[in-house]
Amino acid sequence: MTRLVMKFGGTSMGDLERIRRAARIVAAEVAQGNKVAVVVSAMAGKTNELVAWTDGAGRPAQGIEMSDDEYDVVVASGEQVTSGLLALTLRNMGVDARSWMGWQIPILTDDAHGRARIEDVPGEVLGRAMDAGQVAVVPGFQGVTRDGRITTLGRGGSDTSAVAVAAALECPCDIYTDVDGVYTTDPRIESRARRIEKISYEEMLEMASLGAKVLQTRSVELAMAKRVPVRVLSSFIEPGETGRLPDKGGTLICDEEEIVEKRIVSGVTMSRDEARITLLGLSDRTETPAEVFTRLAEAGVNVDMIVQSQSRKEGAVNLTFTTGRRDAQRAAELMRGAQDALGFEEIRVDEDVAKVSVVGVGMRSHAGVAQTMFRALADKGIKFQAISTSEIKISVLIDAAYAELAVRALHSAYGLEAV
After folding, report:
1. pLDDT at 46
2. Which residues of the chain register pLDDT less than 50?
3. 54 φ, ψ to 5°?
4. Over the range 378-397, which residues count as b (16 or more CB within 10 Å of their CB) and which as e?
5. Contact criterion met (CB below 8 Å) for 143 and 109
6. Whole-structure pTM value
7. Is the peptide bond before 106 cis (omega within 30 degrees of 0)?
């Protein structure tokens, strides 16, 4: 008998019938002799509803701080409902099950309410329950501070919860979602996209951070740090007549060493959540870029691509950087407020851009990856505005109107339909 953590997302928990399907999948794993813990998300759309309720409660009175701790109490309740419902459904099927709230395990976090980070998950209590044959159902997305206050982990945090529980139990993690694995690109954009059987932690981390929506970035970071094998699977399956699950398939996220044939490029991603900010006629003092990015960092604005070019004005440069759309106006206001101190003439903000990226561990040992990318874009008449690279990825910023065309062109250029 082996331990296993299973995670079901909001779509898989969307209504009672889908919860029953998830319960049948869990029961099949138990019937095959596995000791199971299940991490669940809230029903699809429920967290948004709960957030709207907290917004509807109004703004704090003058002199009163934002009640982020009470916000967490409200929005964490969605996962409490689904964990109780799944445990109840399993019991009604004859499977011994019990729900465990984040504070009962406990899933210990820091006190950054609304975006807390997990600090520790003692696995002893859950492990004993599982070893005794009980299915432990755990609400994702939530934790508790060391002084007993409920916290939430930020959007997509249930993936991180599942990986953290698996790390504590020293076992694999199966993540059930509304797709049957990780694809070479979004199948809604490119019909010839193929499911990837195995992908390295590093590749998945890049793809998640660059726009792939399958897993939350923090969950992949944690899986890589703790070496937790993660498999992405479809929740829209049913155990056969024998009660056994079909071959799992899906996509296994694992160490690079476990992948025998390493592809040069594994996937193409796209993100429309981008904005380009340009400071024109910026003073070319050596310390000026440091001042710009220090102000942004102190305001919690994440910056991605950075390009500096000569200005037409003597003794000045043009500095371009990208950030998420949500941060764009805040970053622009911050720059305008410091215009005199930084010494630039004009600021421009463009939200009609997209970032398209190619990712693959094979880039480390193969030349010509960039040449293939830029030739494919040039053949379609697509101009790029900025470039960023790492050891295993190349990203370009382009006009948003050409984003899907670029994805299809790159997918074909690297032969990913044959993966």
Report:
1. 94
2. none
3. -65, -35
4. eeeebebbbebeeebbbbbb
5. yes
6. 0.85
7. yes
